[in-house]
């Protein structure tokens, strides 16, 4: 089974949304994909997603309220086939833990799936308003649609 990990900084805003969207699409397409998410930082370990992410997902019929934050660890390179990071800072943090080119090759900026080679970031919506979450949702929806048809 293909295993996909979504990674952001806190694992409470962007990556739980990405996890929920991709899992939902896998279910809709009757594909057995394992999806998880993690943060490069440990600030929010054990916490539920940000209420604004939970609300945004719910608006689109996706429940992410059961997810809990966890920190990315080097063993995630063993467990997952694809590691999608939200921004270039996440990319650097994850790559710095890679032990080999095999590990490094698993890591990709998630928006490069729809804008190849452009190295665009999914902006961190944590300190902004609600509209930031809609923007993030749309980007992740488009990227996950691409991912589900590629893997
Ligand atoms: P995320 O957003 O990386 O999308 O989960 C953030 C959540 C919390 C913090 C930063 C980003 N923080 O600094 O606590």
Characterization of this structure:
This protein is of the alpha/beta class and 151 residues long. It has a single domain (2-150), classed as Rossmann fold. It has helices at 14-28, 51-59, 76-79, 88-95, 101-104, 130-150, and strands at 2-8, 33-39, 82-85, 107-109. Strands 2-1-3-4 form a 4-stranded parallel beta sheet, sandwiched between helices. α1 (14-28) links the parallel β1 and β2 (33-39). The longest helix has 21 residues, at 130-150. The structure holds 4-nitrophenyl phosphate (4NP).
How are the elements arranged and paired?
Layout: E1 2-8, H1 14-28, E2 33-39, H2 51-59, H3 76-79, E3 82-85, H4 88-95, H5 101-104, E4 107-109, H6 130-150
Parallel strand pairs: 1-2, 1-3, 3-4
4-nitrophenyl phosphate is lined by residues 8-14, 39, 43, 124, 126.
């Amino acid at each position: 089974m293909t295993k996909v990990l979504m990674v952001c900084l806190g694992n409470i805003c962007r990556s739980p949304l990405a996890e929920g969207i991709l899992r939902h699409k896998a279910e809709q397409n009757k594909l057995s994909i394992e999806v998880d998410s993690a943060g490069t930082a440990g600030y929010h370990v054990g916490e539920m997603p940000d209420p604004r992410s939970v609300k945004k997902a719910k608006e689109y019929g996706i429940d992410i309220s059961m997810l809990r934050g966890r920190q990315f660890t080097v063993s995630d390179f063993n467990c997952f086939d694809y590691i999608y990071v939200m921004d270039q800072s996440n990319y650097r943090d994850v790559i710095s833990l890679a032990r080999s080119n095999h590990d490094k090759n698993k890591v990709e900026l998630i928006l490069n799936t729809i804008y190849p080679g452009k190295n665009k970031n999914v902006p961190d919506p944590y300190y902004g308003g609600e509209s930031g979450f809609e923007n993030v949702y749309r980007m992740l929806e488009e990227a996950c649609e691409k991912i589900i048809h590629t893997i």
